[in-house]
Structures are given as structure tokens and as C-alpha cells.
């Protein structure tokens, strides 16, 4: 149970956490703070938060848990505002899609990693953003990856885990580096392909015609290209190294495919497509219990 | 109204046409023919077809419309079997995802394009195949592209258009070359990216772990990688030129993205992502009436 929760950044992620905890009876008061006053007023009207705080320090005052869900590029400024303002029992966690950069920000601002800090990442989201997109079931049956640091207190791990479990999520633990590599492959790279594909088609002369004939599969395939550009810019910058590595690996694969098509190498194409289909079908079977 | 329909290749596409025409009361008898006897027996049991024919010539006998829905690589053999077997009033059409190669096959087999022949392509499908995947609503509100040739008789255009409209589809006309370019961009290229991505991840050492953390967006994004490998090998070979051109264009886009990430060029990334999001959002608005 969290008596007072401070949500810094009341968008899809922060708003859905507040709604999920309320639905589970796992939270008392929710204090919201963020860049857009209009969004915060909306969050108040929607009863996602109980009160607006002027800045992160005011939000954190008296909170037993501070949840930071702002774009990665805004993290450091939030930590600066929180520095020296956290009570000894307050737990600090975040929802950043890249963990290495958040840990770096915390280290740069606080000098040493505070024992109250546990980096986290809920593997959930939609292509929509803002508090109006928030809903209490967002984390149902989703995975949340926590990446405890050597400095993290067992109490912080226990409280943050219990919070996510109350939202219906499954909690997993891994290292910061492992998280950033896995996410580069399974999330950041697919987003680059979707953004790149849609942009590439949008720049074709006949693009109205092109999009007109894009069938059902295309809609699913490109849904993630409707994601927030600011958030994705920040993710790319924050996970530059791991993302560059998987992009390079994918480029080799794509060159191989293009070459097989040019050479009309049907056997090679069949081999690639069959291996991909087998992996996709196996993955869907594996993932079914979570869906 | 089609008194007798011959379906060569009773899978998702051919089976769904038969079911849709039956549901619309637009067909009398349906004769099925195909490579797999077990699949045809299943089609009979499911009442997708009324009778099994031993070969395409037997299926076409007395049919007023012959619908060829076999993989592109099997088209030529079907046309060879049909040569000299079509009554003067019989209309011949197909569902191939590439039109240039089908026209080439018909020309090679029949020497001249028969006036009864109208190439077509329903922009519909799922990642499943076989007659068990067929359902009567597959073509509801979908586009069907017809690519009449100078030789095609007006009567064939009229009958094939009426057939697709009876299935609830919207009929569009374009040239063979235009069809193959539009489809390369909106369907064939996205399939290459999905197959390539899943294969690239499947080949990573930690692939079980990787797929375990692939979130909801990944499932949508890679759904088309579960498509039939044989069909897609044939599409790549048949649309080699147009597909190579869009692949080359996409590779330039991807290299630009990779370079912007390496250089940490946030402005450039934001520009690409914003343009893609705007195009995707506009496309979804445009497409809504069809969904």
C-alpha cells in the first residue's frame, strides 16, 4: 500500500499507473506534476490525480513513492529538482525505456546512487500519449523489468515490485545493460523500421495513391510509427550504442534479402522466410499465456 | 450470377471467394481443384465446394468463370492445363499478388492474351492459409485491383467486377506496372522487413530471452512474418524489379536513420519520426471508411 504517490509526468504511463493502483486499492493520495498545466487539469478532472504540485520537489514532499514517467530527455532535470528533497523512506523509481541513460542521469545529479532508487521499465504502451490515453488495465499481464543496482535497498525492491504486481503486471529482474540490449532488439529496432518505412513511402511522389492501397497488414505493421516523435528521439539518443548494434545486424540481414531477390535465389528466400515464420509462430505460442 | 464457378487452388483466397459468393447468392455450383487431395476433401466437408475436379481442365469444363488462386510459381502449370480447354464464354481471372508475372505466364502459354482473361488481385488476406482459414467476410470493404489488358473483353471486366462487388469488395482499375509498384511498396516491402526482423532476432544467441520480452507492438509488427514462405518466395521472384527498387530506397532511409543515431542528431531524428507519424495518422484517417 502506498499512502502518497507522486507521479512526475502524468501521461499514458504515469496516468495508467495511478488508475491501476486506485482500482487495486493500493494507493491513498496521488500527487501529479508535469510540464503541461492543461494536461494536469485534465488529469484532475479525470480523477487520475488528487492534487497538482507545482514542481517535482513539492510533489515528492511527504510521498512514500515517487514515480518518474517523463521522456528520457527530461529525466535529468527532474532528478535535479528532486535532489536533497527526498525523505529517507521515500522510494524513487522510473519508467524510462532505456535504463543506462537514467542511471547515468541519477549518478550525475546525486553523485552516488541513492539506496532508495530502483530503475524500472513497464513493457506496455500504446501509440497514444497524454493522460486521456491512460487506462487502469494497461499493465494487466504485462512484464515490468526492474534493474536493481548494487546500491539499491531491499526495501525499495520490495515496494516497487509490490506496486507493479498490484497493477496486474509480472515483475522480472535483469541488469541495466541486458535490459538495454533486449529492448533495442525487440522494441527500438522495430520502431525504427516502422518510422523508416512510413517516411520512405510518404516521400514517394505518388504517396496518396500508395497509402490508399495499403492493406490491413500494413496498418498493424505501421501502427508503432504513430508513436510520439519526441519520446522516440530521446530513446534513440539514450540507447545509441545498443540500437546501433542491432541496426547494423539488421542491415546485413536486409542486404542479404535484397541480394537474394536480385539473384532470384528462391531457395535462400524460402529458407529465410521459413525460419522467420517458425520463430514467429513459436514466439506467439510462448507468449500466449501472457496475452 | 455465376452458374458454375471453377476454383483452382482452394485455400484462404479461393475458399473465401466461394464462401462469399454463396453467402451473396451469386453462385450456383462450385468446382474445386488443387494440389492437396486432403485440402479438397476438407473443402468438400466444409461445403466450400460442391465437387472435386481431378485437374484444371476438368474443373473448367462447363464453368462460366475460372478463378485461379494458386501460388505465383504454380500459375504457369495451371494455364498450361487450361490451354485449349476454355469454352468461348468462359471468363478467366486470378488472384496473384503480382500481375506482371501472371500476364507473362498467360502470354507464354496461350501465345496471345485471350480476350476472356482479366488479371486481378484482392487486397485481402491473413497470415493463415489453407481452406480452413477461409471465411465469407474476407473481402468485405476490401479493395480488389483489376488490371485489364488491351485484349480483355468488356464482358470479362463486367463479370469479374460484379463478382467482387457481390463479395462486398470495392473494385479499382490500374495498369499492371502500376499495380506491381504500389504493391511492392505497401505489401511486399513490409513483409521483407517483418521476415528480416524476426529472422535477425531468431539468429541471436539469446533469442528465447529476446522473444520473451517482445511486447504487444512487436506482435502486431511481426504478424505478417507468419505468412506462407512458399507464397512469399514466389512473390519476391515474380516482382523482383519493383521490389528491388523499393528495397534500395528503404535501405537509404535506414542508413540515414542509423547515421543520425550514431551522430546523436536529435533534430534529424525528430524530423523523420514526426513526418512518419503525420503520414501514418493521415493514412489512418483516410482509410477509416474502408476499415
TrEMBL record, chains A, B:
Pathway given in the UniProt record: Amino-acid biosynthesis; L-tyrosine biosynthesis; (4-hydroxyphenyl)pyruvate from prephenate (NAD(+) route): step 1/1
Protein name: prephenate dehydrogenase
Domain named Prephenate/arogenate dehydrogenase: residues: 3-291
GO biological process, one term: tyrosine biosynthetic process
A Pfam family of this chain: PDH_N
Keywords: Amino-acid biosynthesis, Aromatic amino acid biosynthesis, NAD, Oxidoreductase, Tyrosine biosynthesis
Family: Belongs to the prephenate/arogenate dehydrogenase family.
Signal peptide span: none
Record carries keyword Amino-acid biosynthesis: yes
Enzyme Commission number(s): 1.3.1.12
GO MF term list: NAD+ binding; prephenate dehydrogenase (NAD+) activity; prephenate dehydrogenase (NADP+) activity
Record field: catalytic activity: prephenate + NAD(+) = 3-(4-hydroxyphenyl)pyruvate + CO2 + NADH
